[in-house]
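Exercise: predict the fold of this chain.
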Amino acid sequence: MAHIHSQAICSKSARLADDVEVGPYTVIGDNVSIAGGTQIGAFCVIDGHTAIGKNCRIFTGAVVGSVPQDLKYKGEISYLEVGDGNIIREYCTLNVGTGEGGKTTVGNNNLIMAYSHVAHDCVVGNDCIIANGGTLAGHVTIEDKAVVGGLVAIHQFTRIGKLSIIGGCSKVVQDVPPFSTSDGHPTRTYGLNLVGLRRAGLGAETISNLKHAFKLLFNSELAISHAVEKILAEVPAGDEISYLINFIKNSKRGIC
């Protein structure tokens, strides 16, 4: 049996691994599954068709799996999937997807700090940090190892590239390129996330090539499409350069 506090309410239909811990006054709904080693604090609500992975920690007052804040939602069955090793701090809200079969996905080993919101149909990758009060509108994608500063608001359908960092209180209305440092209201890209790149183990040559690519993209006064052509012609090929170019080519909201 899971370790469920006597003052918690847990549906008999919920599926909890034997070593899950549930704090007092927490409510767990019918269609919830929680894998081993996960700890849930007091006064939380875990609801909806929600699957939570192993060794997560969910702190006081978090609401995980509530219905989406979307006027189009009419009660269809939709999902929230949270991976392993995530930390969800106090009073965060994570919604299920919208529309029949819609899904919100959070990967592994993320830190989602207090009062943050992950809306319907968002995709959060692995090893990301969303600082206090970070707000993701619907259909936002946060790629691996991105850092979203405190009180940042991200427009729906926007993508945040991997290994990027966004300064606190920024207003994000266009895609944030991978490997970048961005900030502002609205957000602008200022350069490479050098600290993040070095921590991720990228070598000096790779970082130098990315610097060259960023100079062409953001400081050459070329149109983005022409800058991409010059990158292909001038910058040595590599996985990170290819990733950056594909991210830009696939952007639907434009690059900030």
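Check your answer against the key: The chain has two domains: 3-142, 198-249.
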